[in-house]
Amino acid sequence: MGWALQDIPWERFDPTCVRPELVSIAKAACLVEHNGGDYGAYLRSVFHDDPQFCAVAQVWSEEETKHGEALRRWSEMADPTFDFATAFRRFRERIRLPVDADRSVRGSRCSELIARCVVEVGTSSYYSALRDSAEEPVFREICRRIASDEFRHYKMFYDTLRRYREHERPVLLRRLWVAVQRLIEAEDDELAYAFYCANAVTQPYRRSTYKKAHGRLAFAHYRPRHVELGVAMMLKAIGIKPQSWYGRLIGNSLSRIIGLRDAMA
């Protein structure tokens, strides 16, 4: 099931197929993925008395970091001037996670797991879109492997969510609110600042400017099938059947939120 960096066919790298916009977003993504250790520490702290989930969170964080390492290596091949160490240090100075928190910032463990499912929906769709858009063979393979991992990560979090839902039983509106809130946060400071740091920008950081710059490049690769699958997975995490009338209604609303975010990028 797992893979290692040496499994990537690095020798097939073709610089003639490298597109500058993909290099820019790959460099930003490698910073975020490299931060997987902190995310794992946060989750293990929140679920400190659940050894089953802590083991899952540990594996997840290690795989996220591996994604960052693969994207970093490809980015350095595509752009030999990329200074990962400097970019990552700058990124970490601003983006900090509450790794010692003993409670979820979402208010409950169910809410935390719904938020994690939404994140995995976003990343699996994102890397699937990049895979389908890219021409450079090594980058396509990296995105294929990462997307596959992210779909599996979604299932890991979803299975744990089902376990916790039996006890916490959050109402539908609460579940929906958490998902929508996390979906909106997908364009928060983290991605914008990662894009800023990764691309060696010298002018002062402005969140709105780099949020739009990243979004303009990233969302251009999405196709309707990527959005439709993501929305269906999100509805499942909320506890809504996508085929039901209210599932279709809410799904259309979520699609419009994504479309509006795209239009604003």
Any overview of this molecule?
- With 265 residues, the protein is mostly helical.
- The chain has one domain: Orthogonal Bundle (Ribonucleotide Reductase, subunit A), CATH 1.10.620.20.
- 73% of the residues lie in helices and 0% in strands.
- It has eleven helices and no strands.
- The protein has helices spanning 20-34, 36-46, 51-78, 84-94, 109-133, 137-168, 172-185, 189-198, 207-218, 224-238, 245-264.
- Helix 3 (51-78) packs antiparallel against helix 6 (137-168) and helix 5 (109-133) runs antiparallel to helix 10.
- The chain is globular, with a radius of gyration of 18 Å.
- The chain starts with 19 loop residues before the first helix and ends with a helix.
- Mean pLDDT is 88; it is low at 260-265.
List keywords for this structure.
265 residues; Ribonucleotide Reductase, subunit A; 11 helices; single chain; mainly alpha; globular
What's the CATH superfamily, by name? Ribonucleotide Reductase, subunit A
Shape type: globular
Kindly state the mean pLDDT as a whole number? 88
The share of residues in extended strands comes to under 5%
* CATH third-level topology: Ribonucleotide Reductase, subunit A
Question: Which runs of at least 5 residues are low in confidence (pLDDT < 50)?
Answer: 260-265
Given the structure, what is the number of helices? Answer: 11
Secondary-structure element string: HHHHHHHHHHH
Q: First CA to last CA: what distance?
A: 36 Å
Structural class: mainly alpha
* CATH architecture name: Orthogonal Bundle
How much helix, percentage-wise, in residues?
A: over 70%
Largest sheet: none
CATH secondary-structure class: Mainly Alpha
**What's the alpha carbon Rg, rounded to whole Å?**
18 Å
Number of strands: 0
